[in-house]
Known about the structure:
A hairpin with a 5-residue loop joins strand 5 and strand 6 (133-135). The protein is α/β, with parallel strands linked by helices. The chain is 48% helix and 17% strand. It has a domain at 2-113 and 176-206: P-loop containing nucleotide triphosphate hydrolases (Rossmann fold). The protein has a 5-stranded parallel sheet with strand order 2-3-1-4-8. Strands 6-5-7 form a 3-stranded antiparallel sheet. The chain has 8 helices and 8 strands, in the order E-H-E-H-H-H-E-H-E-H-E-E-E-H-E-H. The longest helix is centred in the C-terminal third of the chain and has 25 residues, at 162-186. The structure holds adenosine monophosphate (AMP). Adenosine monophosphate binds at residues 10, 32-33, 36, 53-54, 57-60, 65, 86-87, 89, 93, 159, 168.
Amino acid sequence: MKRFILFGAPGSGKGTMGERIQRDFGFARIATGDILRAEIERGSAEGRQARAHMDSGGLVPDELVIEMVRRRLQAGDLDGGYVMDGYPRTLRQAEALSQVPCDGEKAVFIEVDEEQAVGRLLSRLTCRECGAIYNRANKPPLRPGICDVCGGAVEPRRDDNEQSVRERFRVYAERTLPVIEYYHRLGVLARIDGNGPAGPVYERLRGLIA
Ligand code: AMP
C-alpha cells in the first residue's frame, strides 16, 4: 500500500487536507492527534498520560505514540493506501515508520506563513466526536455548535490558545523540521504553498497524489 505523509507547522492545514484526501482517494487517514484525543475522551491510561503534554503544546512521549501507530498500522483498512497527518513528528518516530514497508512513499511539506497559521488556529473549531474541522471566520458549522458530519459538539480545541500555540510552533521548529529534512534526503519530499483558502491549496496537493 502507498504511504502519503503530510508535514507542516501547526495551522498549515494538514487536517483539512488529510480529510479531503481521505474523501477523494479512499485513503485511510491516520491522525495521531485525533487518536490521542479519542484516548482522552475514553479516559484510557494512554489518554491520561498524553493529556498534560497536549494541553501545554508539548509532544507526547515517543514510546507511547510509536506503539499507538504500530497498532493502528495493523488494522485491515490500509490496502488502498493511507495518509499520515501529524506523524512522524520526531526523528525517532520517522525511523520507526521507515521500518514499516510500503509500495511507495511520498511526503508533502505544506508551507504557510506563521501569522496566517496562528490566525487559523485561534479561530478553529473542531468536533469533539469525529474531529471534523471548522473555522469561526469562513467555515462555521451549519447549526452553531453542532457538527455537520456527525452531530457532535463543535468547539475550540483545548490547545488552540495563544500560549499552547506558541509552544507548538517552538516544538515544531526544534523537533519536526529535522524530520522534514530527513524526508528531503530520502528524495520523497515535495513542497506546496499552503497560504490562502483551502480549495486552491488542495488543488496544488491533488496533483502530487494522482
Ligand atoms: P495535532 O492534532 O496533530 O495538532 O496534535 C495535537 C497534539 O497531540 C500535539 O500538540 C501533541 O501534543 C500531540 N501529538 C500529536 N501527534 C503527535 C506525535 N506524532 N508525537 C507526539 N505528540 C503528538
